[in-house]
Amino acid sequence: MKVHGMPGWSNPWFRKSVIWLIVLTVGAFLVGFVLLPSVHGDFSAKGLWASICRAAGVPSDWSFGAKPREAPTATDVVLDRAMGKEGSRQAIGRGATLALNCTMCHGAQGMSTSDAPNLAGQYPEVIIKQLMDYRGGKRSSPIMVALAANLSDADIADLAAYYASLPKARTAPTTYDEALPALVRVGAPLRNIAPCVSCHGGIDQKFGAPWLEGMPKGYLALQLKAFRSGERGNDSEAQMRNVARTMTDQEIEEVSVFYARKAGTPSE
């Protein structure tokens, strides 16, 4: 049956138009819903339906009653001001005994001769948090994870009290009177990077941020690169990852050299 005024299938022009329309539709569908989603770095082949749903911005699983998958947390430790209090003599003594297992890397008096961090005079809440993160698997290190696995909360608090009681690994705190790298002094406002000195001691200190004066250069550079790559991710709210993500190798070198420059005998 032919509708008056409309070309029929026998019309070559009409037939070719319909065929090309179908070809273009199928081609656009494959490009938009299959080819383009497949070039994304986080694409995983889960079938045609999943690709279509991803491109269309709709869920591929309509199980409304299913519990949403939670993203892994960077740390389970909640900092409390009580963690920063000075430890008792008994706690320091117990911590000194426990620290005998730490001397090979961190030195007999908390001063490392390798690229392990200096712990002498470190803020107690910093040590508590890091040990709890190692114990909970939020920070990776084969040695530290094994050592922290059997530590109780009391053991960790005693270790923190002991190391905090030792003289800091520094000669003098950072001041604005000395030459400071740009990131240390003013940060990078256009990249939303705060000055290092606003958190890490010397001029100001944010509760829970480690003291960096005198830290081994190799350790500082390694941690900044680990934050930058996402290999280390136990910083709450991704604070350090956001800072390090846009840091260049030269900036990491400058910051690491600056903070390591005062390494030496602890001040009395």
Question: Explain this structure to me?
Answer:
The protein is built from eleven helices and no strands. The chain is mainly alpha-helical and 268 residues long. The radius of gyration is 29 Å and the shape is elongated. The N and C termini lie far apart (104 Å). It folds into three domains: 69 residues, no CATH class; 89 residues, Orthogonal Bundle (Cytochrome Bc1 Complex, Chain D, domain 2); 98 residues, Cytochrome Bc1 Complex, Chain D, domain 2, CATH 1.10.760.10. Helix 1 packs across helix 2, helix 5 runs antiparallel to helix 7 and helix 9 packs antiparallel against helix 11.
Structural topology:
Blueprint: H1 12-38, H2 48-56, H3 89-98, H4 103-106, H5 124-136, H6 142-148, H7 153-165, H8 182-185, H9 217-229, H10 239-244, H11 249-260
Attribute tags:
268 residues, mainly alpha, Cytochrome Bc1 Complex, Chain D, domain 2, 11 helices, 44% helix, metal-binding, heme
User: What is the CATH topology descriptor of the largest domain?
Assistant: Cytochrome Bc1 Complex, Chain D, domain 2
What is the approximate shape? elongated
CATH A-level architecture of the largest domain: Orthogonal Bundle
Strand composition percent: under 5%
Averaged pLDDT, please?
A: 84
What's the alpha carbon Rg, rounded to whole Å? 29 Å
Give the domain tally: 3
Helix and strand content put the structural class at mainly alpha
Question: What is the number of strand segments?
Answer: 0
The CATH top-level class label of the largest domain = Mainly Alpha
Low-confidence stretches: none
CATH superfamily of the largest domain: Cytochrome c-like domain
Give the CA-CA distance, first to last residue: 104 Å
Query: Largest sheet, if any?
Result: none
Number of DSSP helices?
Answer: 11
- The succession of helices and strands, N to C, reads HHHHHHHHHHH
Helix content: 40-55%
